[in-house]
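Shipment paperwork, digital attachment
Item: protein structure file
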Amino acid sequence: MSVLIKGMEMPKDGVYWCEIGVAGDIATITIHGEERKSFPLVSVPEPHGRLIDADALNYTMLYKENWMRGTGIEAPAVWRKDIDAAPTIIPASGEG
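Attachment content:
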């Protein structure tokens, strides 16, 4: 199982050290001796595929013209190429 530290940003550059304390589903993190900050932990079950930002799929992509066979009715559609092009938030289990 993986854990997401919700609300914590990745350091941009440099060498960092931190101390992490966990109590239940809260992580308390001290970076470079600076003030402690608390962040909620979210478990990410494994195995899992590539996790994408579904909201990043443009609304118009979700409703491209797609006619239900033989009915002439427009139906919502998500094209595979749009899903493949969506930004990856967390790589699939086992990927770097």
